[in-house]
Amino acid sequence: MACAAGWRPGGAIGFGGWKNATCVVQIPREPAVSTSADSPMDVGPTIARHLVRQRLRALREASELSPATVAELTGWSLSKLNRIESGDVTVQPLEVRALLRFYGVEDKNVVDTLARLSQASRTRQWYSRYRLAGDFQRFVAFEHEAAVINIWQALFVPGMLQTEEYGAATTALSMRLSPGDREVQARLKLRMDRQWAFRERLGQPGAPRIVAVLDESVLHRPLGGPDVLRRQLDHLLTLAEQKDTYSFGVIPLNLAHHSGIGGTFELLQFAGSDHADVLFVETAAGTDSLTTDEEQTGLFKTIFQDLLRYGLTGEDALDMIRARRAALPGA
């Protein structure tokens, strides 16, 4: 008996009983990720982990083995299997091969590719030294591997575009602490490291891009004082000279109704078709949320496209930044 198993990001999840543990599962070949030996090295550890957990879950469901049955066969706890399938933990290549035997997968290319992806998912990254947790940890990891970082910000210049002094002022204000506070400095260090990691990728194939849309009020809000804001606007204009890397838009104050009025967000997009978009919404209360749900990411993708359509872009956006910079005291 042959079982057909397909997978896609954000697919529906269901559990079945154990009907035939020895059926052979065939995975449809995805054009963006080949089964060659070099394939896993084309993605970072976060995407690799995501692919492994998606495919393992799809293969288990196709084999019609329940999580409880797999846990019994492997001698694992049910929580370990659930954490593997949710992407909360990595899985060793030998464990992947063992699972695939239970799932009846006999295609050597499929087995080898998933084993190599599992190895790639265990690579330690620069952000591992930070004690990040929850959705924010996942966001930083996904951001580091995104091909396009789309940002809508209505309150301040986004973290990936901030100068250090502007970032210190913004962080201190949001945390109600002084700029020199240890916790403020720790968060600022992470933000600067995120920028450094982004710049490090610019010399590599498939270099990333940032598309940022700001509300006009951001250009007027003197966080840190007029001098700090002026240097921040200068920094934006300098970044804008790298046209293949940075694109800016501005939503004018006189645009009374627009779809971004509901809140700010970041939408991460990835090369190829193997990974769904990632939506991240950060709040001052710390209730960050991250999702790959296709309905949600599709909605916010449309919102972002509307912001670009109805706002100022290109030289029009830069002219507004220049005009605001020139109007600041001491300019």
TrEMBL record:
Highest taxon of the lineage: Bacteria
Cross-referenced PROSITE patterns: HTH_CROC1
Cited Pfam families: DUF5753, HTH_31
SUPFAM superfamilies noted in UniProt: lambda repressor-like DNA-binding domains
Signal peptide range in chain numbering: none
InterPro entries on file: Cro/C1-type_HTH, DUF5753, Lambda_DNA-bd_dom_sf
Domain HTH cro/C1-type: 56-111
Parts forming coiled coils: none
UniProt GO molecular function: DNA binding
Protein name as it appears in the record: Helix-turn-helix protein
Naturally occurring in which organism (per UniProt): Actinoplanes xinjiangensis
